[in-house]
Hints:
Layout: H1 2-47, E1 49-51, E2 72-74, E3 81-85, E4 92-94, E5 107-109, E6 114-118, E7 131-133, E8 138-140, E9 155-157, E10 164-166, H2 169-172, E11 180-182, E12 187-189, E13 204-206, E14 214-215, E15 228-230, E16 243-245, H3 251-254, E17 260-262, E18 267-270, E19 284-286, E20 291-294, E21 308-310, E22 315-316, H4 325-329, E23 338-340, E24 368-370, E25 377-378, E26 392-394, E27 399-402, E28 416-418, E29 423-426, E30 440-442, E31 447-448, H5 467-472, E32 477-478, E33 490-491, H6 496-502, E34 514-515, H7 518-524, E35 533-536, E36 540-547, E37 553-560, H8 568-581, E38 590-597, E39 603-610, H9 617-621, H10 628-631, H11 637-656, E40 672-673
Parallel strand pairs: 3-5, 4-6, 5-7, 6-8, 7-9, 9-11, 10-12, 11-13, 13-15, 14-16, 15-17, 16-18, 17-19, 18-20, 19-21, 20-22, 21-23, 23-24, 24-26, 25-27, 26-28, 27-29, 28-30, 29-31, 33-40, 34-38
Antiparallel strand pairs: 1-4, 2-3, 32-33, 35-36, 36-37, 37-39, 38-39
Amino acid sequence: MWGFRQSTLANLSFILLFAINLSVSHLSASKHFQNETDCLALLEFKNQIYDDPFEVLNSWNHSQHHCEWEGVTCSTRHQRVMALTLRDKHLSGTISPHVGNLSFMRFIHLEENQFRGEIPQEFGHLFRLRVLNLSGKALSGKIPANLSYCSEMTAISLMSNRLEGKIPINQLSNLKKLELLNIYSNNLTGEITSSIGNLPSLITVVLSFNNLGGYLPKEMGLLKKLAILRLGGNKLSVAANFFHGNLPTDIGFTLPNLVVLAVGENKFYGNLPASITNASGLVTLDLSRNNFQGQVPANLGDLTNLQIINFSINLFGNNSTGDLDFVASLTNCSNLTSLSLSGNNFEGEDSFSGFLPREVGKLIHLVDLDVSQNQLAGGIPISLADCTNLENLYMQSNFFQGTIPPNLASLKSIQQLDLSSNNLTRSIPKELEKLQYLRCLNLSYNDIEGEVPNTDFQQCKSNIIDWQQQTLWRHSGIGVPTLPMLLYLLVYRIRERRLVARFSSMPTRIDELLRLSYHELLRATSGFYPENLIGSGNFGAVYKGILEKLGNKLVAVKVVLDLQKNGASKSFKAECKTLRNIRHRNLISIVSHCSNIDSKGDEFKALVYEFMENGNLDLWLHPETTDQATSCRSLNLLQKLNIAIDVASALQYLHDHYDAEIVHCDLKPSNILHPRG
Length: 677
């Protein structure tokens, strides 16, 4: 009996051991299969990439485990792919739907590449996905509604693409953990539905520069954590397709955590709700280019964290003496750097004490102040001289009278001062000669007389630059390279008559140059799309763009890429100063400039030039193809001689006839452009 039991126990032990070994073997095979699935999915992703300029995918081969490939992060325990990070690698191609097989994926960062095609529907299979960032460049099609299955999602960023259709808010409202939704600068249409109120974790919503319309749903008030709301620039070709309606009267109570409220370039109307002052964390308040009206809450200054206020191009003000009472309260905003009240119906306190309360002089951190195009009268308040950080002061197109206060010479940092189209009288204060950084002074359309102060400006007969007259003398143009950052070019003439015609829409005076925003340049260049890049240098890059403000005119946008780089910001200022002073028939025209803040809150600087759309001299001398368009490019000996003469003339001016010698630094055929001929 004992022997039977012993034999039975031995058999049971063998069976148990066999079962354990079989289970371990099965788990090992399953793990191997899952890992192989991840590897194959990544290789399929690589197969869809046709350009990898940095060779970041060279490591993606069987010589090493896929968890060691560049941009791939795996979990420690199971060795499953959990993150794909290939941001700003300049990859070109489409996004493979096989990425949807990476079932343990949590983070996808493919921003700042050049992916085309649609966002794969298979992304909806990534149930563990938390962050999806496909920002930048040329993705098209619709936003996949089945992203709603990714219940762990906390951030979706699809900005600066070409997505169209409606935002699937009704489906995405299942994403209860979603904190960021950024679809800035696409071609999306439709309305924001009430379902957005079902996303209680939202902190940042950026829907700017699409074609969205309709009312702002009251359910937005349910987003108690919302800190950043950007809705600017949503419009179609007909007036009804804007965001419109009133801002909710209780917006400050329902959205108390707002930091940025930017709803510019829409069709909102009504008063600015008094409850806004309850959103005590507000840093940016941008209501520009709407139809807001009435008086601004007198206690607006209770928002002590405000840095930027933009009320321009609205109907604020009742043409009454209390219109600007709120300005006094802004003295509580110790970080306020930009205040724009232009294009409204504001009036001053009375005709004796000036257009603004004297407390304006206490806004000592102001860098930009714009009160142009209002109904302001009286004298220019002398307290403005206390705003010693001011760089830009715009007061044109009002009814200011009296003399220009001599103490404005205390504005040591002032660069642009526009007092035109007022009722100012007498002479220009000699003290203004002390403003060493002043580069644009506009006093036209006043009753000023006497001598012009001896400033840094070059003299001209009318103290106004006549751009049309310059155009008539233009034979070729040279850019203004004074430092290594300046990759600017020479322009020669094929047919002068067409060149003159192209400039017929240019501003007639330097004070009429466009003042452009970062968003306008972003839109003009399709989000600084790489295919629009036409040149780059140590400090900047030049993009081709289309400016809507100039009737869809082609321009070249020169962007300072890294203002933190040693000398970049200084070089930009030097270039601006040089462009201001140089006068020669060969100079390429500057259309505008931009000194602003980009969508990330960083400093942004750019110059906008006329665009020469017929290629460069190198393409004419050494054509790379034999197609019909290229074969038509030919230059005879006389044309080549004229080009050489024009280039030499421009260089002689830069070297010998300007106040300081200017060196081009990069003169070669590829840097010589010519207009359409």
